[in-house]
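Progress report, Aim 2. The chain analyzed during this reporting quarter is listed below.
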Amino acid sequence: MTNTEELMQVGYDFAVEIRDGKWNHVSDPNELPEVGRSGLVAELRRRCPGFTDAQYNQAIGNGLFNSR
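Predicted structure tokens for the chain:
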């Protein structure tokens, strides 16, 4: 698995946690503006370091889309 594939998998797993209510302070992840994702980006960075904010935002967006 490449580093980017790993990030996308971690993003997907994180999105599933959000949808399962483990991040209940996120009311509706589909409605999050980009600036509202800073806490999510920080958590994803903690889980999978070494990427840009844009890559973390993409991983979160892809994870939320693919976990619908």
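Residues 3-66 form one domain. The CA atoms of residues 23 and 31 lie 15 Å apart. These observations will guide the mutagenesis work planned for the next reporting period.
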